[in-house]
Amino acid sequence: MRPARREPVPARERGFSLLELMVALIVLSIGVLAVARLFPAGTHGQTQDKLQSTANYLAQEELERLGALAFDDAQLSIGRHPAGSATQACGPNDRWSRWYEVAAVPPPLDDLKKVTLHVTWNNAGGRSIVLSTYVRP
Predict the structure, then answer these.
(1) Global model pTM greater than 0.90
(2) What is the predicted pLDDT for the residue at 8?
(3) What UniProt keywords are attached to this protein's entry (predicted)?
């Protein structure tokens, strides 16, 4: 019995050439590198969002605490708290600082006080948020 002879494969059915494979790998590499460049930008945005969310939480927490105080409490006296340019460190690792200002509201709403709270943090430049509320007796 004789082994079967192999028929020669026509040139158009031989597969990919080495040059075609190299071009395909280069195109694939460029695509992977482009996608890889998106990850640092996404991580930076996520970090900024987390810092801002924490600042918002810290501000809301302080406003709720101030709202529960008596109207004539010393912490709700007209002016900046803490006095001068001091701030209160807050949050994990004291990364945020906050201060608030109490102002009298003109008539006919003169039985209210406006509390404006500032929370600041440093990350790629100074950032801050400001929340306001009104308290009444």
Answers:
(1) no
(2) 67
(3) Membrane, Transmembrane, Transmembrane helix
